Amino acid sequence: MYQYVPGAVYRKIDAEKWRRIFIVGDLHGCFDLLLEKLERQGFDTEQDLLVSVGDLIDRGRQNLECLSLLREKWFCAVRGNHEQMAMDSLADNDPGLWLANGGDWFARLDSARQQQAKALIAECAGLPLVIDIPMDQRHVVVAHADYPADNYYFDQPVDSEELVWSRRRIHRNQQGRGAPITGATHFFFGHTPLNRVRHFFNQYYIDTGAVYGGSLTLVEINTLPV
């Protein structure tokens, strides 16, 4: 299911094409909340880019709207485990795991909207698992759950399942046993709901539980400390 394919797992972003670049935490269907955050930041869809750490869908109410962001030129995302569960469920006709983790919204759609959702979920197969953003003084890497190596370089073969699912590194960090990841200046992850952003070494965990009544975290990477 997670065979490593060179050139497909990683995607590089040309930062010079964008005025500002933002990274957003797990959306889980919280589309209106995202729009409010972007408006407050003065986000310009003609000049700015939004990068998602994945998990656009499930548990929230506006899942189709969040999936539709994939067709916006100002938006890109890594694949999260919830997109993976949706893809696997539709491919295998086995919705059990997806339903148990918030995928019941799909079953409540009428047939036309289900077809729309299926087409958008199919597009998730083309999402990278790592987004690489080299900048003048910063080198930012985005993955959903973890980067499962202690040194980073572009297109390095790593365990793709751990990119999407692993909580090993954040648990080590929380236990005081963490360390920096070399090869880039900043790493951003989602996946693990937290009551606030956690920053360990050069790693930022930005799923702040928007769908559970927490906040939605939006970070402008142009202003990150170097």
Helix amount = 25-40%
Radius of gyration: 17 Å
Strand order of the largest sheet: 1-5-6-7-9-8
Which structural class do the helices and strands define? alpha/beta
Number of strands: 10
What characterizes the major β-sheet?
6 strands, mixed
Ordered list of secondary-structure elements with their pairings:
Elements: E1 10-12, E2 21-24, H1 31-40, E3 49-52, H2 63-68, E4 75-77, H3 81-92, H4 96-100, H5 104-107, H6 111-123, E5 130-134, E6 139-143, H7 160-165, H8 168-174, E7 186-189, E8 198-200, E9 203-205, E10 218-220
Parallel strand pairs: 1-5, 2-3, 3-4, 6-7, 7-9
Antiparallel strand pairs: 2-10, 5-6, 8-9
Commentary on this structure:
The structure is a single chain. The chain is α/β, with parallel strands linked by helices and about 230 residues long. The protein is about 30% helix and about 15% strand. The protein has helices spanning about 30-40, 65-70, 80-90, 95-100, 105, 110-125, 160-165, 170-175, and strands at about 10, 20-25, 50, 75, 130-135, 140-145, 185-190, 200, 205, 220. A six-stranded mixed sheet has the order 1-5-6-7-9-8, with no helix packed on it. The protein has a four-stranded mixed sheet with strand order 4-3-2-10, with no helix packed on it. Helix 2 (about 65-70) links the parallel strand 3 (about 50) and strand 4. The mean pLDDT is about 95.
